[in-house]
UniProtKB/TrEMBL annotation:
Cited SUPFAM superfamilies: 2Fe-2S ferredoxin-like, CO dehydrogenase ISP C-domain like
UniProt protein name: 2Fe-2S ferredoxin-like domain-containing protein
Entries under PROSITE patterns matching the protein: 2FE2S_FER_1 (PS00197), 2FE2S_FER_2 (PS51085)
Lineage: superkingdom: Bacteria
Keyword vocabulary terms for this entry: 2Fe-2S, Iron, Iron-sulfur, Metal-binding, Oxidoreductase, Plasmid
One Gene Ontology term of the molecular function aspect: 2 iron, 2 sulfur cluster binding
Organism expressing this protein natively: Rhizobium gallicum bv. gallicum R602sp
CDD domains: fer2
Keyword Glycoprotein: no
Length: 164
């Protein structure tokens, strides 16, 4: 068994230690926000946050994240009470098909934890591994700038910026 800490909850999971984290999140823990896109570390759809860093969960074995703090989009807020990142993405209508959005959000969450008010260049750089086939990049950029404003307005300290 491997012990995982996901969105503040502890789970004992039975998968083999070399199983990609993405499969465990989706198949064992029923957390389906992170998406399978390429499975090869090339599209960013599976991005989650591990100890504050954006990580591609399709190429990250379970054993590497044991005991670390894992956050997925489910940990950013709820439908009834969306967190600032979720609220900003809704406000800016950043999703088209939506497949890339959870990965975009988790890369953005990691960025905003380290850099409260990133420039457009810094946002583009942090999201360079996240692909969007719908081409909604400009609205995603606007949503991340808005999330930064909402977090600032709420006085959220950096350490809490992944919380809803
Ligand atoms: S599914 Fe992980 S990078 Fe594409
Ligand atoms: S919104 Fe469709 S892939 Fe990005």
């Amino acid at each position: 068994m491997t012990t995982l800490n996901v969105n503040g909850h502890t789970h004992e999971v039975a998968s083999e230690p070399d199983t990609p984290l993405l499969y465990v999140l989706r198949n064992e823990l029923n957390l389906n926000a992170a998406k399978f896109g390429c499975g090869l570390g090339q599209c960013g759809a599976c991005t989650v946050m591990v100890d504050g860093q954006a990580v591609l969960s399709c190429v990250t074995p379970l054993i590497v994240v044991e005991g670390k703090e894992i956050v997925t989009v489910e940990g950013l807020g709820t439908a009834e009470k969306p967190g600032p990142l979720q609220a900003a993405f809704i406000e800016k209508q950043a999703a088209q098909c939506g497949y890339c959005i959870p990965g975009m959000m988790m890369s953005a969450a990691a960025l905003l934890k380290q850099n409260a008010t990133p420039t457009d260049e810094e946002i583009r750089s942090a999201l360079r591994t996240n692909l969007c086939r719908c081409g909604t990049h400009m609205r995603i950029l606007a949503a991340i700038r808005r999330a930064s404003e909402l977090m600032e307005a709420a006085g959220l300290p950096a350490a809490k910026r992944s919380a809803g």
